[in-house]
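Q: I have three molecules that I believe assemble together. Could you output structure tokens for the complex as a whole instead of separate predictions?
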Amino acid sequence: MKRKSLLVAAVLAALVSGPATAACSFRNEVPVRILSAAFEAWKSVTDAMAECGNVTASLDQEFRTKLSAAFAAKPALYQMAGVSNTTIPPLLNQNTIRPLNDLVEKHGQHLKPNQLIKVGDDIVAVAMMVNTQELAYRKDIFDELGLEVPGTYDELFEVAEKIRESDKVAYPLGGTTMSGWNLALEWINFYASLAGDSFVNPDGTPNFNNENGIRALELLKRTTEYMDPEYLMSDSTFVQQQMQHGKIAMANLWASRVGAMDNEAESTVVGKVHTAPSPIAAEGARPVAMLYWDGIVIPRNISDEAAEAAFRVAMEGLSTEMVQAHNDDAVWLIDGYQPGRLAEGAVATATADPGPVPYPMTIEMGLVHSAIGNQISGFFTGTKSAEAALMAAEEEYRTAAGEAGLLH
Amino acid sequence: MSTSKALRQPVTLRMLSASFLTFWCLLAAFPIVWIAVMSVKAPLDAFASNPFDVILGPITKAQGRGLTVLDIAVLLIGLWLAVRVAMRVLPGLAARYSPPGFLALGWVVVILGYGIALFLLGFVVLPPVLGAINAALGLDPLIGLTTQHYHSVWVKNAFWKNFVNSAVVTTGVVTISLTVGTLAGYGLARSGSNLAFWLLIAALIFRALPHSVLVAGYLPIFINSAEILRPILGENAPTLYGQPLAVIAVLVSINQPFTIWMLRSFFQSIPAELDEAARVDGCTHFQAFRRVIMPVMWPGVITTGLFSFLLAYNDFLVTSLLLDQSDMTMVPAIAGYFNRETTMTDQVEAIAAAVSITAPLFLLVMIFQRQIVSGLTAGAVKG
Amino acid sequence: MRFKTFACFVGPSLLLMVLFIAVPLVSVFIQSFHVTQPVIERIETERCTAGFLEQQCSTEIKNVPVLDERGSIVTTTRFVGLENYRAVVRPDSVQAAISSWNWPALMAIDFWKALRFTLSFTLITLPLVIGLGLTIALAVNNTTRSIRGPVIFVSLLPYIITPVIGALSIRWLFVGDGILTQAMEAWSGRQISMFAQGWTIELLMLFYRVWHVAPFAFVIFYAGLQTMNRDAIEAAMMDGASRFERLRYVIIPHLMPLIFFVSLIHLMDAYRVFEEVVGFRSQAHVISLQWLTYDLLQPDDAGNRAVSRASASAMLTMIGIVILLVPLLRKSWRDHKGVR
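A: Yes, here they are, computed for all three components at once.
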């Protein structure tokens, strides 16, 4: 019987989800194609945009590979793209982003000043959300064992030790330490906590192979001692799943991922997870996190008419109604957002003093990120010392920067 | 049967061979059966650490979704019947009712028809009937089972669009690949020149080139093709990126080396006297090919076609990079589920999608199994 | 066959291969000796980025590519000889590692690490695939006719299943508390983590590849066995050949061309091993040559791609496979001569 009612529901859904334009304030006649990264918040936003009609969204895995070429084509293959501060540099460098000043003036008066991403006087992007790390922890276990929420990593290790002794969970800690991009990001967070965003010198030479770099590596290695031994393949989905299944008690995790802990369909720890600011790496340091934003950009190589249509559609997507319908999908910058219990930690991380630095929007940062990602895993598998790993990363950075024309 | 006494084997050897085969079959089928089981459970059951929870699905059952004894019995019998029909009846049907000379068309119709019939029977007719009987008999579910993931995949996430795209790309690749490859394979088989040999070797080396290099080379050109081709084609210059046709061309080319190697050795096994006799009768090479070779080449062509089908259907690297989201085929669409920042529900849906992808492959191999073996036996591979 | 007819037959196929394989190959070859880089200038800009409460603005000196009047990035291309190959192979580090007999130091260089894995992967799986394929073929040939159909069908499953999905399903069975890991833990009474150390991952990758490809070898050998001449076997029996001797001297020689064919295909495919590295997330422990090329080509967040090094690495992969194929190609050449 159940299956029959499912079928009926399907037919109903198909009828209802026809050409609905109810939630959009205008009828869009110009085709707008959107390319963006694929995660939940973009899905909510592009769905809201699609209500205006003539909108097709590609939430594409190969987004990074396709984006800059698609924007450089004449005319551009897409009328809008969803980017973040990590993915916007190639577009800025090839100058294929349309300045949005006129459109913001005409259609975006309601946008808050901190949503406008500027280079010089040009508004190049409109941000919709910020993302950062927060400490998700199992409040029930902490209460039972009488533990304090750790504010520094020294405290975190003590707490982790106690949780391990109590045998309440399989592993005290989880982390997004999959080798490559994820592991490098964790190291970058630690380094930024200790030394801010000084990864490279102004002349492009590397500046990460130093005491702080070593210390960041060693701290990161120490956290892995409390994790599942398979930590080198643990991405954020894996950590999220571990926590939902009650296998770990704490994780310094993306704010965008923690919301799933209260999803009743897949979590066994509904209501038990609370959040706190990301701990600091040492006294006086910043939280072990960086600030990211996600937002929309419009290419330069399209007609003004298409750009205007795209911008109006975007404003419909980044609306208060959308935020109210999907409040817990992200830490929204849009009016109407109410941080829930599982986002409190992220807000506290973002507003800490000294606060986390934004991930730098530079060509060099991408090179640092991949060099670190390729070279430090040897330190974790035990084939390289910390010094050798950072030295190898520095060498790789120099080779790559030489190829990219940054160093001579 | 016809085994002569001398060839009969001692019991120990037979036992050994049988137990080895059983072990191998388990090994071959287990991962696939397991993901099929996972795909019909609630997320918490599917990823439970206790294997019995995965099989029985207590949480799924608690949500009121499950199979009764009757359902299980009907399911098992139905599966067995479906396999029998596919293997025994369908090849005969296709051979008997397809118009002469259009055997391939007959196959396509039969396979499509069978797939649709199975789907209708399994998902539309049976559930309400069984549901009514179960309710009448007062049977309680025994095993937790839910089809909601399949429902979300196919209906909510519009996976059928990907299915259609896959069908377009695969059909295109198989047709073009075989047409082009048959000609080339025949030419190479009948030409003993050094040029032919070196072409074959070059093809082998082409096959060795890492695909990621090729594809990364195509991408910028495909995206900018409108601009590049404008001086030649004028305003109608197409953007190749996102065009299924462009992807078909790429996949056909990548697959050419394998295709021509297989078909060449198949044609070599057809005695050259056949077409030489035809040519003595005054036929050109093309006429000889059409009148004499074409009627006898089907076993080899079907086998080679299946390999082309597998390549096109299973391709990930080319399709994920060169197709736009709206034209995406099934495999990259699924990889999208896994790689993006997913929830557990997404993952189980991805598993359901993965099982859905595998189903047509099942059907195909079930039906064509005899043809594969006989095609290979007839000499599609002679090294 | 006249050249013109031959050209007509082979033309379309050749055109496709030239257009989509040979041309990219030549361009990769040329790129591997060049470096193309944008012209960079340093300018001072103020950039404002989003914060949760307020904007964060800073004025910095940035390295930015120079644009021409059409709005595209100005690039320079220069010939660098073997520089790119040197950057991949790192001959000085290799020399240092070899002269001090330091194996780990050699394995710390990506290219050699990848080469080590790719070669051992190829050479270990080859005999396993042939052996397993042959055993299954003999066993299936041995069973009664009525169950052959279903057995062949089940045996073919690992080969037809989409590789991405096959690798994932095997990973689920083993990762973390996957059920097979649990089974092994229950059996051995020890805590086992299959993905925590390199050698177990490598083992799983080997297992997966053999599982995936053995059915291909099987079906080809099985077809070969169907053409086996029964008289030859019976004659061998009359001569008093034991079961093993019959296998060794009658069956294997009959299947030799097929073993050759399967080896050829398998060597090429295994040398390009790539899906396993992605599917099993092994890059911290083992990487393959194609993965290395792929990784160099993959743009990082800032859009940088190491195209020149990737080209060099791709060419080295090609050279490696040609060397590996030489013995097999020589046999083809001899056959070719023989046929004529």
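A: One point stands out. Chain A has a mean pLDDT of 85.
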